[in-house]
Amino acid sequence: MSVRLLNIGCGKSFHPAWVNADVRPRPGVVGVDARERLPFVDGEFDVVYHSHMLEHLGREEGEQFLRECYRVLAPSGMLRVVVPDFGNIVDEYELLRKQMKNDPDAATYKKIKWLFIELTDQFARDSTGGDMARYLRGKVESSQHEFLERRVGYLPAADDSITLKRKRRVSPRRLIKGVRLTKLREHLIMRLLGPDDYRALCVGRFRASGEVHRWLFDHQTLKWVLEEVGFGTVRSQGPESSDIPGWGEYRLDVGDDGRPRKPSSLYIEARK
After folding, report:
1. Residues 213 and 122: beta-carbon distance below 8 Å
2. Residues 108, 114, 117, 122, CA torsion sign
3. What's the rounded Cα separation, in Å, for the pair 258 and 153?
């Protein structure tokens, strides 16, 4: 009997053996909004997986989403959750803070500065990429490369772009018309609201777009939430380790180079 697999919030990391779902559907990816009831019947899947998606939901939204994951899993089915590891950030920050206190140096200060940005910016940012993107696109000394790549997985080139949406190809005429209409609409809204209220509207639009993080997890807090939903046998895993049959061949948590797609992540699996 084949294993039925569901990958929710797949983004660009998906495999044809899975039912791949995302809020932005496209060929091979079905449309699913994690804030709503999942469009699958009870017990339809043996495995449900989602990576770096749960933290974008509020506490109550996240718990309801996990209940939906539980519902669509078959008895003894497996849930694999990958989220930023809050405990990892705090532990490393505290270790470096003590090191800085005992033996202050510029390299340690820069590491602490990055960790503070990494922790706070993902919640406080009000524009795409936030301070993290600005920091990484600035002048990063070679001595910082190993540390930063261990935190984020890669260092973007100067011309890399961070976007929320994949842009569709449109004709130049249609593009120009769309830009003109958008600018006209925004100009009218700004005139109506005034600059301060218009700025507040833009920030509100961004913060509702789904980029910012809305909740934190370490191993213990995620374990508590999963157990409250009804899951049992909660275990920590790594990017390449899993109790999911054939996990290594899917390469969902590692890139083609074998490195984790999202370093400093928390990998948790739980049974229904």
Report:
1. yes
2. negative
3. 11
